[in-house]
């Protein structure tokens, strides 16, 4: 392959992920316009990885504007689970995979105060704030204060100890409304840590702050997680 060809291909692939096309071809419809479902609202976040083995990709947040078009409001590099991505309905807890699918975003939380302009309900993290991941607990996949007796500390996240990641976060509605024990708990969109996540989606801190200032609960934003193609393509959700 001639020098520079790899860079050109990567650049073209990045454009396609965002719904654009190389300069020498016609513009493709924006990514949300090619999706099977966007959640019915007028805001959408997409988190796209090249394939299921990837631990990095791109998060883009979109607005559905008055003339019916989807317009990108911003984008940032994303990190996924250290185990890559897995189909949400069949995901297994403990695999460090990020679940693909289309999810609502119930509320935001953080160790640090909400960025000015945040409209989402924002729950402050306290010393006794835990997220229960214990399959034997009645509080499975729920925030608890304090940690209940039937939720073992070894099977829960003490939120305040994740000072970088949980500076700001949005709860992802994966396995949330009617939790299936063993499928997974504690999936968030949060600030980057040192590397790949344990199954969440993460972005740089400033990008997370921008997302929180942008998100409007009344516009029913959803998060679509998927790959650029294949059985877990983001366009299938």
From TrEMBL:
Pfam family for this entry, one: YkuD
Say yes or no: keyword Transcription regulation present: no
- Domain spans labelled L,D-TPase catalytic: 75-219
Q: Where is the signal peptide?
A: 1-23
What are the UniProt keywords, alphabetically?
Answer: Signal
In terms of superkingdom, the source organism counts as Bacteria
What PANTHER family does this protein's entry cite? BLR0621 PROTEIN
Q: What is this protein called?
A: L,D-transpeptidase family protein
Organism, scientific name = Streptomyces violaceorubidus
């Amino acid at each position: 392959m001639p020098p520079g060809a790899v860079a050109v291909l990567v650049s073209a692939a990045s454009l396609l992920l965002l719904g654009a096309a190389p300069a020498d071809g016609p513009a493709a419809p924006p990514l949300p316009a090619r999706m099977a479902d966007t959640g019915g609202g007028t805001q959408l976040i997409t988190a796209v990885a090249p394939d299921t083995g990837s631990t990095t990709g791109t998060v883009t947040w979109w607005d559905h504007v008055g003339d019916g078009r989807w317009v990108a409001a911003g984008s940032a590099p994303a990190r996924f689970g250290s185990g890559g991505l897995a189909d949400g309905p069949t995901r297994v807890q403990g695999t460090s995979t990020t679940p693909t699918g289309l999810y609502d975003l119930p509320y935001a939380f953080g160790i640090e105060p909400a960025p000015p302009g945040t409209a989402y309900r924002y729950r402050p993290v306290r010393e006794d704030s835990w997220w229960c991941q214990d399959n034997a607990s009645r509080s499975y996949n729920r925030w608890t204060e304090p940690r209940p007796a039937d939720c073992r500390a070894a099977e829960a996240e003490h939120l305040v100890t994740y000072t970088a990641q949980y500076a700001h976060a949005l709860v992802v509605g994966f396995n949330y409304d009617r939790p299936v024990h063993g499928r997974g708990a504690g999936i968030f969109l949060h600030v980057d840590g040192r590397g790949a996540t344990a199954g969440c989606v993460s972005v740089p801190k400033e990008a997370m702050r921008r997302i929180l200032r942008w998100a409007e609960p009344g516009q029913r934003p959803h998060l679509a997680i998927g790959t650029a193609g294949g059985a877990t393509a983001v366009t299938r959700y």
